[in-house]
Amino acid sequence: MDQAPQETGYKIWAVDDVVYGPVDMPTLVEWVKDERVLTDTWVFVCHEKKWNQAGQMGEMRSVFNSVLPGSVPVAPAPLIAGIRPGALRRVKILGEMTDQQLGRFAAFMEVENARQFHTIVKQGDPGDAMYLILEGELRVRQMIGGKETVLVTLNAGEFFGDISLFDHGPRSADVVANANSVLLKVSASNLQKMVQEAPELATPFLVAICKTLTARIRADNKRLRDSINVARASR
Fold first, then answer.
1. Per-residue CA distances from 15 to 32, 43, 90, 134 (Å)
2. β-pairing, 10-13 with 119-121?
3. Burial label, 183 (beta-carbon count in 10 A; 0-12, 13-18, 19+)
4. Are residues 89 and 61 in the same domain?
5. Is 202 within a domain?
6. Which structural domain range is residue 54 located in?
7. Average pLDDT of the residues of the chain
8. Within a domain: residue 157?
9. pLDDT tens-place string over residues 176-224
10. Is 4 a member of any domain?
11. Residue 128's domain is classified under what CATH number?
12. How many structural domains does the chain have?
């Protein structure tokens, strides 16, 4: 029986809590130059099958001395400050992405912290972004006759605003924070940028949105059929 080829190269445990690689030594050197890899960055040496801090690796000491002589590398900011990719897994439509894809996907997002009672979007305003809910609770409401009518309550893992992301149409309702919440904003401009620069990320994201929209349409069609059947039966 043929043995599987031994994996070679290096894997990098990055500051965004995603493991990248394997990459070869020239790529690793470039990442040191870009300060993506620091002396305290954990690196998995594939042929040795163990983790080491980059600055403690014999083959890397000379790289740090030549690339960063006498300097103290400063850790770059995470892709999304204060949010680890594990938190992104709360969002159902991102569930099929790998950790590496999530880390890259995060670069196209913006974080919004909404305090309790803050209105995130207002009915009638033009829409150009969708929101993914990481933490907290929101309510979708309409003001009818001066009174609030709550249409639905949204929790961590859900999203809203997806339609206006594509047609830039007016918001159909207010969305208000019931509690302090953390949201990820995906703007139309950033989505277009992702389509152009990272189509391998945009495709599964858009497919996941389409699946959700399809499920909503089927559920609405069923409710309509049920209503018609009840109306006919009552005649």
1. 14, 12, 20, 20
2. unpaired
3. buried
4. no
5. yes
6. 10-67
7. 82
8. yes
9. 999 999 899 999 999 999 999 989 889 989 988 888 888 888 988 888 8
10. no
11. 2.60.120.10
12. 2
The enclosing H or E element of 170 equals none
Asked whether the whole model's pTM tops 0.70, one would answer no
The answer to whether 129 touches 164, Cβ cutoff 8 Å, is yes
Residues 108-126 have a mean pLDDT of: 91
Element (H, E) at 62: helix 58-67
Is residue 140's pLDDT more than 90? yes
* pLDDT digit string, tens, across residues 24-36: 888 888 888 877 7
Indicate whether 204 and 116 sit together in one domain.
yes
Same domain, residue pair 98 and 137 = yes
Whole-number percent of the chain with pLDDT over 70: 87
- Residue 16, classified by CB atoms within 10 Å of its CB into exposed (0-12), middle (13-18) or buried (19+), is buried
Q: Between residues 159 and 16, which one has the greater pLDDT?
A: 159
Between CA 136 and CA 178 the distance in angstroms is 8
Q: Cα torsion at 149, 154, 158, 159 (round to 10°)?
A: 40
My answer on whether 53 and 108 are in the same domain is no
Q: Which residues are 119's β-sheet partners?
A: 176
